[in-house]
Amino acid sequence: MTSSLSRALSSEEVARLGEELDALKQRTLADVGEADARYIRRVVKAVRYTELLGRALLFVGIFPPAWVLGTLLLGVSKILENMELGHNVMHGQYDWMNEPSLNGKTYEWDIVGTSDMWRKTHNYEHHTYTNIRGMDNDIGYGLLRLFPEQRWRPFYLLQPLWAALLALLFQWGVAIQDLELGKVFSGRKSKAELNAQWQPLKKKIRYQLLKDYLFFPLLAGPFFLTVLSGNLVANLIRNLWTFMIIFCGHFTAKAEVFPRSVLDNETQGHWYLRQLRGSSNLRGSKLFHILSGNLSHQIEHHLFPTVPARRYRELSVEVKAICEKYGQHYNTGSLLSQFGQVVYRIFRHALPSRPERTTALLSA
């Protein structure tokens, strides 16, 4: 995708940009400590108490105000657990605390997808090969054509419908992403390999479905359907919010996609530049940033995935200054503006289109 607002850099400039961002990362990590620990413990409590209160209200949800408030509180709990707690903990942002419940390698989150699959598809594949076609499966999640550089097929004509379904069922899209079902259908992946991956996922799916749609509704006795419907809507709220925030962070108008050739002799500076050009930020209040898991600062998250996300807001000031120094576009905007660009991409690239010329990372 063309990024006309960013200029090509010389190899020396790329190296200096990388050194400045490395230094910023190390200064921030050296300052991480008790304030960050207090913050994530407060997030854990917020997740726990909003869930408890939300579920309690759903138990008396036969009264409409209680059902609405209970569903909203449970939805907020699931959003916080998914984005500000689970996602960030699994990046290892709080491993330094040496608390088993906050260990990034063992944390299991409250969605149907397993954390082990997420650590592979997201922490490794997406953050290593960000926006590289054929290597980063987060580009369209195997369903959507969001860049003109992606090959068009008639299947994409219905992608506004596929996008709507993915938004509603986002946790399921995340869950099956690593199964790579397309490879199975094309014969590039054996059924034995699929079955090996399916077994832990099946166990996780069973646990989540029993918890939300049987265990808690049964506890409500005669209000079974009231609790069941509240849990269903809370999961939908979480799915829609997560879809919107993640897509706004990756698929706005100025976000770029890259060919595999960018990996040839890629330095740390080049890697930083790729993260910067493939990401988008969202402006908003402190509460908005918390509810987004601070992925409203997607640029800073892609640059520094292991830095506690609560630091991204302050980091964004220095990152923006570095961008201005090196003539790089710092892609940020309101939620309405950025999501509008995402929706445009979904409809525009459902139709055939020619690839646009990508701005070079290096000057000639």
What does this structure look like?
- A two-stranded parallel ribbon has the order 1-2.
- The protein is globular and about 70 Å long.
- The mean pLDDT is 93.
- It has one domain.
- Helices cover 59% and strands 1% of the residues.
- It is built from 14 helices and 2 strands; from the N terminus they run H-H-H-H-H-H-H-H-H-H-E-H-H-H-E-H.
- It is mostly helical.
- The chain has helices at 11-31, 34-59, 64-90, 115-128, 159-168, 170-176, 181-185, 191-219, 224-250, 268-277, 286-291, 298-303, 312-325, 335-348; strands at residues 281-282, 332-333.
- Helix 2 packs antiparallel against helix 3 (64-90), helix 3 crosses helix 9 and helix 8 (191-219) crosses helix 9 (224-250).
Short key terms for the protein model shown above:
membrane; mainly alpha; globular; Fatty_acid_desaturase; Linoleoyl-CoA desaturase; 14 helices; 364 residues
Q: Which percent bin holds the helix content?
A: 55-70%
- What gap, in angstroms, lies between the N and C termini? 19 Å
Cα-based radius of gyration, to the nearest Å:
21 Å
Compressed to H and E, one letter per element, the order equals HHHHHHHHHHEHHHEH
